[in-house]
Design a protein that fits this description.
By secondary structure, the chain is α/β, with parallel strands linked by helices. The chain contains nine helices and seven strands; from the N terminus they run H-E-H-E-H-E-E-H-E-H-E-E-H-H-H-H. A seven-stranded mixed β-sheet has the order 3-2-1-4-5-7-6, sandwiched between helices. The mean pLDDT is 95.
Length: 225
Amino acid sequence: MIPLNQRLKKVSQYIKGDYLADIGSDHAYLPIYAIENQLATKAIAGEVIKGPFEASKRSVAEHVLGKVIDVRLGDGLSVLDDINEVTAVTICGMGGPLIAKILNEGQSKLTNSPRLILQSNVQSSAIRKLLPNLHYTIVAEEIFEEKGHIYEIIVADYSEQPVSMNEQELKFGPYLLVEKNAIFYKKWQHELESLYKIKHNLNETQHAERLIEINGEINLINEVL
């Protein structure tokens, strides 16, 4: 059985259906784990760079799963067929804007309305802003810390009438706002301190617009904390 870190184990808990597509698969660890733990019966491991693509192929071969895990080379969701039966898409270990870009550019490949399980390292708001445009509604979120890094998971399902979010929900997460666990407070307290430092170093005349923007962010975080 393949060992998996806490981050990807948390992601694996949200896999839906029996056909997983993992985009940016990092040695195909998540697809291998999903198959070995009966979370899926088949999977696609997508890689955009040749080196990681070869590493994923080796991992799949070592676990003798070549018949059920298809390692594909391509950019984002381009590794999926135009008509496909994928039931869950995972995109992990990237910034929110890059995940949003992958989804936006590849939205034509979401033909089977798969569940989206998105684990971002920073700027998750970019994902939340995009999801309603794709007819997706957030159904679960997690924020947690591993080895000194704070991560967020956003889980979204297809919806004919996606739920709209207000400014606070887009920035902080509708579910995370309700829970407000210790890691949530830690993350946003750190963000607040960083913004105060930036503000302190800006000149009121030269950086007037940026100061307005930063003050708005500070006020938003203070309202929540």
